[in-house]
Amino acid sequence: MIRYFGQTRILVAVDCIIFGFDGDHLKLLLIQRGFEPEAKKWSLMGGFIQPEESLADASNRILKELTGLEGVYLEQLKCFGAPERDPIERTIGIAYFSLIDINKYQKQINDKYHAEWFLLNEVPKLIFDHEEMVETAKRQLRYKAALHPILFELLPEKFTIPQLQNLYEGIYAATFDKRNFSRKLLSTGLLIRQKDKHKENSKKGAFYYTLNKTQYKDKFQSFLNFVPNPESLIL
Global pTM? Predict the structure, then answer.
């Protein structure tokens, strides 16, 4: 077998950053690492790429093995390659991220590695450079949420304005005025009000809405009105 002469072995790993929305809160999925170093510490879902695998195949395999999740869309985020990021061997980490509906996937999650959802403001200390990975993924998520309809993939087919506000506030770590948010949202003309109401949280209830997906393709930029400091999203 021909090899490159005089080159040092470098490992390549994949780390999966899974954000989820449960209808009220945005959360991050973590596991307890199963081996040393940092065994039992909270970690992203990570593992080494095998010689016969593509990056996409490895990320899907690792996520399923460590959490039970499968069929989740994963998007490559960034490579992390600081020389000392792993104390055992030089390892390049390739991060993938995803945003899912927790209620849709909850039954898939196993407890082999104690997979657990954490509120974004209650995330425990993570191993290695995983906190940097999460912060990078948050920035990318905010950028994509401003320019693409990904947030609506997390909501049921019909949803309430309070649910949508909860999601936006979770994504942007900001608090929006309820009346302003509702007024701006309805002014886009992109929501179709339904006849029925969600009455779990109040007797008066909140009307359900659906997204006009045809109009969204033409007018998606109207949702930039909800983004705090949109110029900060330029990457």
Answer: 0.86
